[in-house]
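forwarding from the other thread:

> can someone predict this with pyridoxal-5'-phosphate?

sure thing
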Amino acid sequence: MAITQSIKLFQKAREVMVAGVNSPVRSFMSVGGHPLVMARGKGSLFFDVDGNAYTDYCLSWGALILGHAHNDVVSAVRRAIVHGSSFGTTTQVEIEMARFVVRHVPSIDLVRLVNSGTEATMSAIRLARGFTAKKMIVKFDGCYHGHFDDLLIQAGSGVAKLPESSSQGITPNHIQETLSLPYNNTRVLSDILNRFHKDIACVIVEPVAGNMGVVRPEKDFLKTLRELTQKFKIVLIFDEVMTGFRMGLGCVQSDLGIIPDLTCLGKIIGGGFPMGAYGGRKDIMQCVAPLGRVYQAGTFSGNPVTLCAGLATLKNLSKGFYLRLNTRSEEFAEQMNRFFVSQNSPAYLSGYKSMLSLRFQAGPVKNYAQAQKASSVQLYAKLFQKLLKNGVYWPPADLEAFFLSAAHSNRDLRRLADLLKDFFA
Ligand SMILES: Cc1ncc(COP(=O)(O)O)c(C=O)c1O
């Protein structure tokens, strides 16, 4: 598989962009080999500038639930763009999107559309602090909520690859108000909330974690979290940037029957364009400017072209759609896990519906410490390179989730299964 054009172009990229990329994990630093320059995509495939095809299980980090260049999305964008790209006013499609979100996501009475997942979480945190007039925030180790200063400690995803648990350039006063607790540890959670509730503005959590690989919440974890935050009048924020609209139209909160005060969305909602949203209880959302005194604004927020792509995506999602996608994903994970057990392989596919990740141990993990123990940078790099050589693209770092889209065929999955079996046999 020749990648001469990728190599040539990437040399140019390195001259002018940090490590040749605009987001760290794209640089292949933790998997080695040469980063690829992509040219186009269709369905489950994307193609590099040398014309090599790859079945894509990264899917723009989970955003492309319909696969690449879905006809409905392409047509919607084409129709929208001829009428202008941005107005800086309210548009009809914004209203339609907001109504869609409010109708389907149980926690959301009022919504504000923004331009990324980071913007959504950052704004939700500010809002929670404004609403409660308290300062401290609680997060969980291994959860990633974007590159917002106050949340960038003990974060998963690309941050996990930094030598420290956080980024340089963040002043102590930002993170001294942040507590990061072990995921799925109800005892520690209860203890901290009982002791510090007078100072805690909010708790933010990935209700199913995806940024330390996929970790499911244990039975009582979110329930206790909901009960305690209600009792202490602490704002509970579900970060559903990754899970939102991936499992079902009501997001994970509907699935689990636990309704937060605020919800952050991103990825799928933008249909492959930059977008995020935060929303929730009316009395809290009414504190956002101009109704309230929590300021948050955006030149491109609610961009009409983005929203047309987002809505075209969301309109494809139905009960039947999710049933098909989720069933195939779950069957795939079960089949692989049966194989790993039969071979005595130190491997396990952790999954929640169409969001999956591989552990290098038999059986699931329940928190970040266990996820790190069950990870192997060397083995993952080897596997990644094997897959890539065989035309399969996984996220270029372990501890990231990979995804299935509606465009992935049974043939795609059989091929992935064969490659994984071959690797572990
Ligand atoms: C759960 C979660 N929250 C927030 C973010 C940040 O979103 P964005 O990269 O759009 O800023 C991400 C990104 O991967 C995420 O997975």
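The two ends are 24 Å apart (CA to CA). thats all i got for now
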